[in-house]
Design goal:
By secondary structure, the protein is an alpha/beta fold. It folds into two domains: about 280 residues, Spore Coat Polysaccharide Biosynthesis Protein SpsA, Chain A, CATH 3.90.550; about 80 residues, no CATH class. The chain is about 50% helix and about 15% strand. The protein contains 17 helices and ten strands. The chain has an eight-stranded mixed beta sheet, with helices on both faces. The mean pLDDT is about 95.
Length: about 425
């Protein structure tokens, strides 16, 4: 058995029953203090069944020191799941487990890891490295073709991708204040990814936990899911993407709930809670100029391959001041020397250079230039500017948050 399971996996197997020989996909759903998980299961039940056996694993979890009301809700959830299994008679195998996690590490990352590790373990038992692990959340619904489109992406393409992110849309609430918040927040998420794509960053993908899909062998190669209490999806996908193709699945849809929450320190729930607590106003995002400046570095990155120190210095001085300052702050000359030492070919250099400018480094850059060069700007303003640059052959929509969001959604679906 792969040493990942001996050294790094969540130690406790969650499903006592052996996997079916024809198992093709396992859908993992972490569930914490969630009163409304049944619509998620109902939407999976309404899906067209794909070939092979499908398992759905709900990981009901809480920290060891969880308040009494959370414990009570989780017990109620387990009861509801068992009752639903009996009454709905799902065509897929539904498993649920209850975990009390250490207070220091409890959270969505560890719960997701426990479920994904168990899914990977089951495929390992079947000697099925191409088995597909699907991530979903307990407050999502999915389109009827959700499972068949994912199946086709991984089993009908040659070669198949190592992972994927599924197209998503937040349902827009009727209440105007909350609607305005979720519209601008989702616009910010799409603007961020499309700005990176516009400047040629190869790892421009949405990092939403409920949209992630990964092959079992790639999951193990990436070191599995992490234990982060928030942002586990961002960190996992940015470990996965350098390993191979992470596809964008746009032929189906996940609808994550749009609701305020204090469960995690950042993300949709936190953003909406802050939005409602603050006076009405625009949602702010990174300046478009921050991305455009970074694009200048991406454009000349291969020129640094085997460049002499004087040549490298000259190249850096040709870049925008914001990028020059960031490179100095990051000791780029030392990093570049290391990258070149470890790179015997241009292809290896390119891989190593992008490993240096990974998703975390990009985020550091954006925060650095936000603080020292380009303050955050209203998302509608920046998304409107980007739309004109990114899709010059399309009719530019007006600078209205909701119209822009629909425009961005359509461009991503058409991609």
């Amino acid at each position: 058995m792969n040493r990942y399971f001996e050294r790094y996996a969540f130690a406790q197997p969650l499903i006592g029953k052996a996997p079916a020989k024809g198992l093709s996909m396992v859908v993992v759903i972490p569930c914490y203090n969630e009163p409304d998980i049944l619509p998620t299961l109902d939407s999976l039940l309404a899906c067209t069944p794909p070939p092979g056996e499908i398992e759905v694993l709900v990981v009901v979890n809480e920290p060891e020191n969880a308040p009494a009301d959370v414990q009570q809700q989780n017990r109620q959830t387990l009861h509801s799941l068992e009752r639903w299994r009996v009454t709905a008679k799902p065509w897929f195998a539904l498993y649920s487990t209850y975990l009390q996690l250490p207070a220091k590490t409890a959270g969505v990352g560890l719960a997701r890891k426990a479920g994904m590790d168990d899914a990977a373990r089951r495929f390992e038992q079947l000697s099925k490295p191409d088995g597909v692990i699907v991530c979903l959340d307990a407050d999502c619904t999915v389109a009827a073709n959700y499972l068949t489109v994912i199946y086709d992406t991984f089993y009908h393409n040659s070669p198949p991708p190592i992972g994927a992110v599924v197209y998503y849309e937040h349902p827009l609430p009727e209440e105007s204040r909350l609607r305005s918040g979720i519209v601008q927040y989702e616009l910010h998420l799409r603007y961020y990814v499309q700005a990176l794509a516009h400047i040629g960053y190869p790892f421009a993908r949405h990092t939403v936990g409920s949209t992630m899909v990964v092959r079992q062998d790639a999951y193990l190669k990436a070191g599995g899911m992490n234990k982060r209490q928030a942002g586990e999806d961002f960190y996992f996908l940015h470990k996965l993407m350098p390993l191979g193709e992470v596809a964008e699945i746009t032929g189906t849809t996940v609808w994550p709930a749009a609701r305020p929450s204090d469960r995690v320190p950042f993300g949709t729930g936190k953003a909406l809670r802050q939005w409602l607590q603050n006076p009405p106003g625009p949602y702010y995002t990174y300046s478009l100029q921050s991305f455009l400046d970074l694009g200048a570095l991406l454009l000349i990155r291969e020129k640094f391959y085997r460049a002499k120190p004087t040549e490298a210095t000259s190249l850096v001085h040709s870049l925008p001041a914001s990028v020059q300052a960031f490179l100095q702050e990051q000791d780029y000359s030392l990093e570049l020397a290391r990258i070149n030492r470890q790179s015997t070919t241009l292809a290896i250099y390119s891989k190593n250079w992008l490993a240096w400018l990974d998703g975390f480094k990009v985020l550091k850059y954006l925060h650095f230039v936000r603080d020292h060069f380009y303050p955050n700007q209203p998302v509608v303003q920046e998304a409107h500017r980007l739309a004109g640059l990114r899709w010059p052959d399309k009719a530019l929509p007006p600078a209205d948050a909701e119209i822009l969001l629909y425009f961005y959604r359509q461009q991503e679906k058409d991609n």
